[in-house]
Task: inverse folding
């Protein structure tokens, strides 16, 4: 996976000077040079997007404002998708926990449950990281505003189990669509597993 990612970043860097003509001269001016060790962990490599530069004057000397707007739009879309992903995985966490408590018996079952729970927790961390990165980028590109009041900073205590009152109409519709795709009744009437999903104790 790292080899594939490294190749994609190197390809991206090949075209980057076309869209950010002032980037190379700026990096040379500040004396930045990529460390050889970064190549071993491409996931830590800096991409040098417009949001990487806090100073607006520096940013505009490196790339046109149209590119800044493109990143702004992409980051804002990613912000909403990441938040939806966090909420979706929190519902999965509740669902797995309820099933584990209700049906858990035997070492094999607990092992499978714990494995699935670890996967859910991993996805929560991934979506959380995407949310934080997108929000930080938008703060650079846009500054504070109404959007920041809607998409607030996520604290650790915000990433927790969802109670019944937090299951919105949109979320309920999402569950219904998933049930239809799975060939199950949309309303889930009499489905104990579904009822456990939406009947979570508020914490």
Result:
């Amino acid at each position: 996976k790292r080899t594939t990612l490294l190749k994609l970043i190197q390809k991206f860097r090949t075209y980057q000077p076309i869209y950010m003509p002032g980037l190379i001269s700026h990096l040379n001016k500040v004396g930045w040079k990529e460390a050889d060790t970064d190549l071993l962990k491409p996931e830590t490599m800096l991409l040098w997007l417009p949001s990487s530069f806090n100073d607006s004057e520096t940013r505009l000397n490196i790339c046109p404002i149209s590119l800044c707007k493109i990143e702004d739009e992409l980051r804002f879309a990613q912000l909403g998708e990441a938040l939806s992903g966090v909420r979706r995985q929190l519902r999965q966490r509740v669902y797995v926990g309820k099933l584990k408590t209700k049906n858990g018996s035997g070492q094999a079952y607990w092992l499978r449950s714990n494995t699935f729970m670890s996967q859910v927790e991993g996805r929560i961390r991934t979506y959380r990281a995407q949310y934080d990165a997108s929000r930080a980028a938008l703060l650079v590109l846009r500054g504070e505003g109404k959007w920041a009041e809607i998409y607030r900073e996520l604290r650790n205590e915000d990433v927790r189990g969802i109670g019944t009152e937090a299951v919105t109409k949109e979320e309920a519709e999402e569950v219904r669509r998933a049930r239809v795709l799975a060939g199950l009744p949309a309303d889930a009437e009499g489905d104990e597993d579904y009822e456990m999903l939406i009947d979570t104790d508020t914490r």
